[in-house]
Sequence to fold (76 residues):
Amino acid sequence: LQKLNVQKIKVDKSFLNFKDKRSLSILDYVVKLSKDIGISAMVEGVETPQQQDVLMNFGYQKFQGYLYGKPAMLVA
Fold:
């Protein structure tokens, strides 16, 4: 990551399985890593307020998903 020009980490919705200990560990690690190296982390696929609450407790502040609106496409 140090050699790449990484500015953001986007966490896939497949990690939103809160019953899976591995997924929870990965979510925790990604937010800690992003803070430690000074880049932002966003989670995609957030569909419920409960998911958002859990993610906020981990320290995430940016979300994407149907909870906020349907996907849109910009046509130029």
